[in-house]
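=== RUN LOG ===
request id: a7f3
mode: sequence -> structure
chains: 1
length: 460
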Amino acid sequence: MLTPRTAITVALLLFLTFAVISIWSAMQPSDSGGRGFDSFGTRIEGHRGLFETFERLGFSIERRFTPPDATLPLDSSLVLIAPNPMTLGFEPLPLQQLRPWISSGGRLVVFAPDLVDLHSSQIEQMQNQLDHFDPDVFSLLQIDGVSVESLSYREVPVKNVPDQAELSAISIRRHLSSPEQTAASSRESTANTVAGSGMSEGVDEGWSLAFPMGDLAVLHLKEDGPARPHTSGIDGLEEMRTIAATIPIGKGEIVIVSDPHFVTNLPWGAEENAAWGVHLLTDGGTRQVVIDEFYHGLMVRGNNWWLLTKPAYLLPFLAILLLLGLITWRFGTMLGPALATQEPSRRVVSEYVEAMGDFFLKASDGRRFVLKSVHQGIWRRLCKELHLPPSTKDLETIVSLMSRRDPERANRIQQAFQESEQMFESATLRPVDCMKTLSQLDRCLHRDEEARHLTANAIR
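=== RESULT ===
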């Protein structure tokens, strides 16, 4: 049975269970169940293959869910793979404040968002409604002279990928800043990275990159702009178009990649995408990699319990919770033992009638009261049956009308009421006389045959 003690205990247990589950879920990676376009994604456009490849090869790689800031190590590469334009528009400040960190020696690698996402109707609607809504990552990073263009599938000199009908491949070469740059100086870091990882050597001369069949996004660099090609033009393409460019800023740099599909799960294991991706993100094996998930929407905002995963917030919370518990225990009302359960009373109507009769008979003149009550009740019943007003006082009127219908019943009525009126005038009433008079009054309500039956039962 539910008691106050049980109800309080159940409520406390439910609250503690909810708090533990919430804290536990906040401590888990805020992934999207493997369905998102992020480093947790296991579908075609996810980047789970990239993350697991770096882990398998022993490179330092981590995910970051909080807004990027200057606390990042200077020897790391912060990687933004197709950041969500909607998140960029609403959260531009963290990205804008990265410039001092880059100038101090940090490295930012940005895979440009898909042009379809950047020019969606939802983005255009937000730009029209909000004056300061800017989803362009190049504008937020203050990068001039760089734009992303889409080349039609027929314009790109592609080659087929063996056993991958849904993929195409292009050939690119590394960009050398000067003809005098020797092969050893340009290949040393890449050769160490790739050869130590079990990949084929010599890919630093050129790369064969696979991408999903369809249009290819490329970078267009202004000649007088700050961006310099990280890779040379695409082989077989007349105009100068590249897929990666470098922008030096102080001691650091920003690397821009035109198409994020090169590092998605589908083409990652084809051609030389993995070797190129390792070389690009680690800067030849010299930097640790930090994958930004904040601009993929996997942020901790909206989950207040996430603060409890930090010791600076968890310890004060536990102290306050303990203090409140002690105060409640000190000033609270201690519940005693539970009351014994009482069985519900289940009585029949006859028991209630008998109890009321005993109650009336306890009075000094109880028999006379009961006899008068029955006398008045039967009188009103007979008046109603004979269509007389309740105020009728003459017994002869009732008897004369009843004699027309049932003479024998009229005689019983006259005899019973005369005896009851005599009983009212007597000084003492014996129980036997009262029961006899009550029985006669009761037979006044029944017809001749029913009255004989009741009389016979009474005699028996």
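=== NOTES ===
The first strand starts at residue 61 and ends at 64.
The first helix runs from residue 4 to 27.
=== END ===
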